[in-house]
């Protein structure tokens, strides 16, 4: 993929566990993190009921340059154009050479 197709600026959001003051922990998503150029494309939004539970399926496909900081527990926030926050559901190294990543993501509704 040519770099000219990577037109969306995204920020990596890494979860941080903080004490909740009652002996437990809660997860926060700091808004500071590394930024990357990516291609963010919408997919069909749908949910599937499996064994009585609703499972979210991917709503967006993100293609970007490979980076070892991208892991499945992270989120991506679109910076330009501003907008959605995405939870990473799955990752694929497109050519097996650690050059490009394909990420299946679902939109975070808060």
Report on this structure.
The mean pLDDT is 85. This protein has strands at 8-13, 16-19, 25-28, 35-42, 47-50, 53-56, 60-65, 75-80, 85-93, 100-107. The protein has one domain (3-107): Bacteriophage SPP1 head-tail adaptor protein (Thrombin, subunit H, Beta Barrel). It starts with 7 loop residues before the first strand and ends with a strand. The strands form three sheets. The chain has a six-stranded antiparallel beta barrel with strand order 1-4-7-10-9-8. Strands 2-3 form a two-stranded antiparallel ribbon. A two-stranded antiparallel sheet has the order 5-6. Strand 9 (85-93) and strand 10 form a beta hairpin. It is mostly beta strands.
Short description:
This protein has 110 residues and is an all-beta fold. The chain has no helices and ten strands.
CATH class: Mainly Beta
Record field, number of beta strands: 10
- The span between the termini is 33 Å
Query: Which structural class best describes the helix and strand composition?
Result: mainly beta
Instruction: Characterize the biggest β-sheet.
Output: 6 strands, antiparallel, barrel
Spatial strand sequence of the major β-sheet: 1-4-7-10-9-8
CATH-defined architecture: Beta Barrel
CATH superfamily: Bacteriophage SPP1 head-tail adaptor protein
Strand composition percent: over 45%
Task: Give the overall average pLDDT.
Answer: 85
- What is the CA-atom radius of gyration, in angstroms? 15 Å
| Unreliably modeled segments | none
- Per the CATH scheme, the topology name is Thrombin, subunit H
Question: Element order, helices and strands?
Answer: EEEEEEEEEE
Indicate the overall shape.
globular
Number of helices: 0
Number of folding domains? 1
Query: Percent range for helical residues?
Result: under 10%
